[in-house]
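INFO  loader      accepted 1 record
INFO  loader      residues=200
INFO  predictor   begin
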Amino acid sequence: MLPRPVSIFDSSFPTSSIGAPPPMGKGSGQVYLVTTSMKVGSKNVGPALLLVKETNHNDSWGPPGGQTDATDHSVMFAALREFNEEVGADWTMLANSIGKMTLLRLKNQPSKNEGWVILVETDAQTAENALFGQDRSNWNLSKRMKTKLSQETGGYAFVALSEIVNADPNSGAFKIGPNAVKLRYPKFTRDAAQLLQKLF
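INFO  predictor   done
INFO  writer      dumping tokens
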């Protein structure tokens, strides 16, 4: 059973208690897959977030997610389903491979549009290998950014949370390594990254 849906603001975080997700309803959800660290060369750049390149939206970048459909019990389930569809990998691969993982709601209350966090207490490389079921340690950044994951996504990258927080608030411009890119939803993704930084 999934962990009880909690907020990063809950005094009980992290929690081992369980309970039901919010009820079914139309909306949209995003999944913020966050690792506790990421190495770039020999340097640890701190916590990192998985972003995907959205080919249907001018190759802008953002967390996996989308709208609920008739099969979704809740926005949370829609977010996790969309994650699997857009990333082309099952998030439970992480749950089965990584020793410590927490699923939690980004904000305090259930709503029609929710961000959900999968926090894995490991580095980005280990999480990537577990998620895709193969060792991608030798892949360079360019290869990741050009790897088609699904019909909707044409690349992926783990990005330091600090890079997203410092993205341009209007255009969403930021960098993935030396590459100049843009966030699809600058305000929402930057706000989420700021909240996520409070976990560390």
